[in-house]
Structure formats: structure tokens, C-alpha cells
């Protein structure tokens, strides 16, 4: 039997808490139907017996409190809502408990923005971690020693797990079910919950918003200029000259503020513009390629796939019913 402890945190997303319990208990049902013993003991844990959520509209009664909880085999940190810095701060007392559980042999899994509390515990230093793509820049700023791989759907390193945005927690739950039971059980759970199994990238879902939550006004102006002129053949030297900064200083400040090199940023802006055209328009992929500033179809395909994880044709098929021609 594996003891699964689901933390009921302040500012937690209720669905993350209930989905986790439902998934593991449903696997117990599957096993029972096959005359096999249950595999999981699932419990809600918090620092108090009742935790109000969503401004008191929901209250969750826990099975055990931190000071009297049995040894856990797996601790699940649910997704957090609202301001991440504030949500982490109000749950800071859990961080040491999480770290002690891991040192005692438990595995730890964070769902979506629960990664902020997992990183706060200190366990992710030097390790890979993913989270909701919308919070990636904030996460990277707060936890620079963590290897953020926000393009990934889940990470799995040394008994530490994380998942990407929102419903990616289902991919994490299926991954954990397979690890603790079998591939067969994971497939059965995927079919029951109608979840695609083995998704490994959240890149196609990422919306590039410009990463402007920094205080370098020169770089913000440069970002706005790039976004307004992405179809032009801009160079780093031209941008540095325009904003009266040496190329070396401009590149250093740009990377520090945005987490991207200037060239990477220009590529991301171009690809985001192409994605919108593929989603909404009826132009051919070749026409879209030219409009966003590419002249080589192979180069465009390669960059598009590197950024989104899929080809332009696959992206159009996924998000637009209208057919397009090459």
C-alpha cells in the first residue's frame, strides 16, 4: 500500500485537490473490480482540520494534520491560485515539512503553480521543474537556481515531480499511477478520465506575452519596437543603435530582463504572430511565413517546431478547421 498525502493549502485550487484524490481512489476501484487489493491510501493533510478555500465558499475537512500524519510515500502539492508570491508566503510553514518528508523517503509532486512552493522548499535547486507557462518568467526570477523547463508537460527527477499548466496535472497523475501500479492501470485511468496519455510538451499551448514584468525601461521599449515591427529584417546592431546602447550591453540587459536573447525574442514574436494567423485566418502557410518575416520555408518550419513542439501544418490542424495550402 502506498500512502498518498494531498496537501490542502491556503489559496489552493480545489479541483487540483479533488482530482488527485479521485484519480488514486478510482484506481483502487479498478483493482477491486479485478479482485485485487487496493494500492493506495489517500488522505488530505493540512496544518488545521478545516481549510476554507475560494474566500470561504468551499471548506475542506482533512483526514490528518501535519503534526499527526502517518509516513507518506507520495506528497502532492496542489496548484495555487492568485498572486504566487503571496500564496507561497501564506503556505511557507509547509515548506520545511515537505523537505523533511522528502528526506524521510517520500516522493514529492507539484501540480501546476504548486511548483512555487516546491521550489521554496529548496528541493529543486539544480533540478528540472515545470509550471504553468503564464508564470514561467516570475518563477525563473524568484528561483534562478532551478532549471525551469516550462515547455515540458511534466518533470521526473529523483522522486521529485512537477506538471505544467492547469490540466497538465492529469498527465502527472497518470504518470504517477503508472509508476506505482502498471502501464495497464494508467491506460485504463486515461480512458476513464478521457485524458490523452503520454503528452510530454505544453509548448503548443504557450501564448507568448512579451515578458515585460521587469524594470528596464530601455529594454521594454525595445520589446515594444520588436513587437510592432516583427516582419522587418531587424538586427541586434540596429536595435542597439536605435536605443543608444552598445551591442554587448544591450544583449546582456535584454537577456537579464526577458530570459531570452534578442534573436530568440524576435523569433518568439514572429512565431506568435504566425500562430494567430494559423488559428484565425485562411492564408496559406507560405503567405503567413512571408508576412511574419521569413523567406525560407524550411527555416520557418524548423523554428516553428522548436518553439511550439509541432509543425505549422499540425498547429493549423489542431486549432483551425479551415484548411490551408502550402
UniProtKB/TrEMBL annotation:
Transcription in keyword set: yes
InterPro entries noted in UniProt: Class_I_gatase-like, DJ-1/PfpI, Homeodomain-like_sf, HTH_AraC, INH-QAR, Tscrpt_reg_AraC-type_HTH
GO molecular function: DNA-binding transcription factor activity; sequence-specific DNA binding
Pfam entry (one): HTH_18
Residue ranges of domain HTH araC/xylS-type in the record: 220-318
Keyword DNA-binding: yes
Listed Gene3D superfamilies: 3.40.50.880, Homeodomain-like
Keyword entries, A-Z: DNA-binding, Transcription, Transcription regulation
Name of protein: Putative AraC family transcriptional regulator
